[in-house]
Design brief:
- With 505 residues, the protein is of the alpha/beta class.
- It folds into 2 domains: 188 residues, P-loop containing nucleotide triphosphate hydrolases (Rossmann fold, 3-Layer(aba) Sandwich), CATH 3.40.50; 175 residues, no CATH class.
- Helix content is 44%, strand content 11%.
- It contains 24 helices and 16 strands.
- The strands form 6 sheets. The protein has a 5-stranded parallel β-sheet with strand order 4-7-10-1-11. A 3-stranded antiparallel β-sheet has the order 14-16-15.
- It is elongated and about 95 Å long.
């Protein structure tokens, strides 16, 4: 319904069945969230569209908190969709909410709080004009930083307003409202709550328990109607601050978020979030490559050289997917190819998107970020390789390389040129059938499948691969030359010693 077709005065509002005083006057934001949530539950509608992997864990806890009319906090490592969930709460608000037109704190037409609105209602009564808030208008978010003040959140005296209106500084009309009063009749979210200084957190005590705030210098308590929600990273408490105990006690529910628990969930999130359709050309990302990208994140979370407390964000596979598509896009543009199809080798072009998202332990720092990431990528490739090629005999391919063959896959060559060179490897394209690729397919598909097979063999130490993406036979480790010389030179003396003790057995 367009706002122009809605009641425009308090009198018209009273006569409208959807905005009757009995419904609007005493219905709080938390009641509104609860009623709309109950309606969604009855119709089995998705509560938070686009939020994947939380259906049986996080979402039921949020539902319980909203049904209980509680304020709550989401605790979780970076990249776990905390902010997205908080913003998605607006879907549980009414589509149009009336307020007294021109009011800074969006007063309820039937129950005004500020002095200006009370005087306007007394003067114009049913002719008082009203305006409407959309769902998004009713969401106010603040990122907590150490420089946030009580005035920012609650309010302060505004001498400029007093001077312009010729009001005395003691008048309520000279108050400057902070973010919290301006979120009246809506949702107020604070991200990274521990970053808020302790004395500022204290300013939230009253609104959390008694439901009102007092602006400095005024003996006025504003009984705000607001739902408060927070987010925080529990591992940052000691490094950047903490939530003071009385405030934690006032928060109704503490809900823990988590990373995707399965590869399938991670794939769904990355597919939803990553920008892969570039528009100017047809883009295809093979399923096995999507799995490898997701496996990189899972392998990094398991690697002991990666800091578990910092976590490995879901942004890692999303950024990696976008970078490998971009590298394939660059290659297609250079060679005038109509199909943009990423390969496993493009992962190494995406290293800048991975190294910046990992915090390393001391052992990892000694090895270097690039080295650790390359090993994580190798492990990920190996795990997905086993899924497709566990029963594939690659001896014929290994033998071709052992006889001195080499193969180089580089972006400077088109897919057709690379395919022509790879055709020299005996048995190579006969082994890629588990990927659903067959002879006669587009060169891009055949080259991508062959490179995955070769990279997987390298991950299992069956082949060797240089930094220039040249595949060759696996070099067998040899004992150092100095050790071999020492063993040979020591042998006669050792033999003589054994002979003096009674001969060789």
């Amino acid at each position: 319904m367009a706002t122009r077709n809605l009641p425009q005065t308090v009198g018209e509002l009273r006569a409208h069945p959807d905005f009757a005083e009995a419904r609007i006057a005493k219905r709080s934001v938390k009641d509104e969230l609860r009623e709309n949530l109950m309606a969604r539950l009855r119709t089995r509608e998705t509560i938070f569209p686009g939020i994947i992997g939380y259906e049986d864990t996080v979402v039921p806890q949020i539902v319980n908190a909203v049904l209980s009319r509680q304020n709550f906090i989401l605790l979780g490592l970076r990249g776990q969709a905390k902010s997205r969930i908080l913003r998605a709460l607006t879907a549980l608000l009414d589509e149009h909410t009336p307020y007294i037109k021109g009011c800074e704190i969006r007063d309820n037409p039937y129950h005004p709080l500020c002095r200006r609105c009370r005087e306007l209602i007394a003067l114009r009564s049913d002719d008082t004009p009203v305006a409407y808030m959309s769902r998004n208008d009713r969401y106010v978010e603040k990122l907590a930083t150490p420089d946030v003040t009580v005035a920012d959140l609650i309010g302060d005296i505004d001498p400029i307003k007093a001077a312009r209106s010729a009001e005395d500084l003691s008048s309520e009309l000279t108050m400057h409202y902070g973010l919290l009063p301006r979120a009246n009749r809506g949702i107020f979210a604070i991200n990274e709550l521990p970053d808020l200084a302790g004395k500022i957190q204290v300013a939230l005590f009253n609104i959390m328990q008694e439901g009102d705030v007092q602006i400095k210098g005024y003996p006025v308590r504003l009984e705000l109607d607001v739902a408060l929600v927070f987010s925080a990273n529990p591992e940052d408490y000691t490094a950047r601050g903490k939530i003071v105990t009385p405030l934690k006690d006032r928060i109704g529910s503490e809900i823990r978020t988590h990373y995707a628990e399965t590869i399938e969930e991670g794939l769904a999130i990355t597919t939803q979030e990553a920008w892969t359709e570039r528009g100017h050309a047809r883009t295809e990302v093979p399923d096995y490559l999507r799995e490898i990208v997701e496996q990189v994140a899972f392998s990094a979370r398991e690697d002991k050289r990666v800091d578990k407390r910092s976590g490995v964000s879901q942004r890692l596979p999303i950024a990696t997917m976008e970078l490998i598509v971009s590298n394939a896009e660059r290659r297609a543009l250079l060679h005038g190819e109509s199909l943009v199809l990423p390969r496993v080798g493009d992962l190494y072009a995406a290293l800048p998107g991975i190294t910046g998202k990992l915090e390393l332990e001391y052992e990892g720092e000694l090895r270097g970020a690039d080295t650790v990431v390359k090993e994580v990528v190798r492990v990920a490739i190996g795990k997905v390789f086993d899924k497709y090629f566990a029963n594939t005999n690659t001896q014929q391919i290994e033998q071709w390389f052992n006889l001195g063959g080499t193969a180089k896959i580089e972006d400077a060559k088109s897919a057709a040129q690379t395919l022509e060179e790879l055709n020299e490897i005996q048995g190579l394209f006969e082994k890629v059938s588990p990927l659903g690729v067959k002879s006669g397919d587009a060169p891009e598909h055949l080259v991508a499948a062959a490179e995955f097979l070769l990279e997987g063999m390298c991950s299992h130490r069956r082949l060797s691969r240089s930094e220039e993406r040249t595949f060759s036979a696996q070099k067998r480790p040899q004992p150092p030359k100095q050790e071999r010389v020492a063993m040979e030179s020591d042998y006669p003396e050792w033999q003589a010693r054994r002979s003096r003790r009674g001969g060789l057995n």
